[in-house]
Structures are given as C-alpha cells and as structure tokens.
Amino acid sequence: MSGQDDATQRIKRRTYLGAAASAGLVGLAGCSSSGTASAARGPPKVPESKLADGGWKQIDEQTQDPAFEKSFGPVTVSAAFHTLVYEDAALAAELKEKTLGQAEGQFSMFFASRVTLDPSLANIPDAAMGPVVEQVEKQARAQFESQLESAGLVDIEQASDAELTVDTGETANVTNYTAAFPFEGINFPLTDEKSVEIEGRKLGVTGLLAVWEHDGSLLIAGGAHPGENLALDVTKSPTEAIEVSVNLDLGLTPADYSAELEALVKATE
Predict the structure, then answer these.
(1) Which residues have a Cβ under 8 Å from the Cβ of 35 and sit 6 or more positions away?
(2) Residue spans of alpha helices (H) in 10-105
(3) Is 254 left (phi over 0), alpha (psi -120 to 50) or beta?
(4) What is the mean pLDDT of residues 176-180?
(5) Nearest to 57 by CA among 94, 108, 125, 95
(6) Where would one find the signal peptide in this protein (predicted)?
(7) 56: part of which helix (H) or strand (E)?
(8) Under a CB-based contact definition with an 8 Å cutoff, are residues 63 and 29 in contact?
(9) What does the alpha-carbon distance between residue 87 and residue 92 come to, in Å, rounded to a whole number?
(10) What is the pTM of this model?
C-alpha cells in the first residue's frame, strides 16, 4: 500500500482558514448593511489582472455604512466600509488534488477594504486626524485577530510593525502577524484491528494587515497564508512484522505566498 496515499486520504477536512475565508470581510466590515452604499463609498480598486493570473477568485463583498460613528474632540466622524474578499482558488484546487479530496478550504486569502469617512479626510481638523486614523487601525487589527481566532488559530501575535510603500506612492502602516493552526494529525487503518497514527502538530500561519490614506479615503488590505510547509516523514511499527513508512509533502511555498500577498496589497487603490 502507499503510505502517502493512505495518509493523505485521511487528512482532516478542517483547514486553518476554512471557516474564515471572509476574515477580512467579516472582521473589517462587520455585518452587512441593509442599505446600499453610495458611489462615493464604493469598493477599493484591486489588481484584477494579478488576481486572475494568480488563480484568485472573489468569494464575497459587503458594505457597512456606517461602520462606526465617534466623536474626536469637536468633530464627530462616521466611517463606511466596503470590502472585497478573495481566495487562492488555484492553490485550494492543487491541495485538494494532492490530498485526494480530503483537504478542502481557503488556504490563502486576500481582502481589501475602502474606509470612507464623513467628514472627509480633507475636512477633519489636524488635531483629530491622528486619533481618527488610529481608531480605524485599532478596529481593523482587533477585528482581524478575532476572525483568525474564530477560524481555529492559536498563538495569534502581532509579530512586528513596519511600513510599506504602495504602488501609488503612499506609505502604509503594516502589522505583521504570526499564528498557528493545531493540525490534528492523521490516523489510518492497516487492518480491522491495527492502525497507524501520526501525531498532530502546529502548522505556522503568516498574515499582514496594512492601512494607508489614498485619494481622500483610508484603505485596508491584507490576508493570511501558510507560513510553513507540511512535510511528514515517519516510520511506524504497528506490529513486530510490519513497518510502515509515511512520506507526505504538500509542497507549500510560504515565501512565494508572502510575496504575492504583498504585491496584491501594494497594487490596491
């Protein structure tokens, strides 16, 4: 028998981003609004050609208007969110094929949200500008972390802060994330009485969230993807007469996913 085939057939269907394909959408936009956003509060412009070439597929779109309304000194500011969410459908299909249909879900996701403020950024007093942007960033981070947690991730941490120059020339404030998915392991039978169990482990996850000002509004973009490859090479002896070697390598390439996600974020406007 093929140890790899048997092992992959029994990989749990639960995947670390499965339940949170719309982490960015639900986390940043909240519950959908029953109203219709105005043209001035439209969606962000995403790099459609990059998304198409990379095998990405839009899976959701929502608006919340207003997302929040808060007083900052003498001015009361309301914010409307319009968010688009994408999954790497090509990667999902590849991993589904490699695991004989057992691993299904959104392994990599990308989201982009336009935050339209009322009054507009140009009309917010300088003294209130910093607190307004800080409020948007704070809410975005908290909601993003909450959605990662609801997806089953553990050890969620803001790993570092950085800056990123986007394609339109503005500077985005970036929060880099690390997390882990508690992989449940694999158990597959050899006979009616004997089976081989591969112990579970934590699978690393990497994400980022970027916030910047563009054309009178605030943009938020980011996502999450596998932070390490899943490779197992285990030998088990369920009986004195049987030795089973299991070799499983999903061929995940975190550096490539990270570069692609950053390129998508930078091209958003």
Answers:
(1) 63, 65
(2) 23-24, 48-53, 89-98
(3) alpha
(4) 94
(5) 108
(6) none
(7) strand 56-72
(8) yes
(9) 8
(10) 0.80
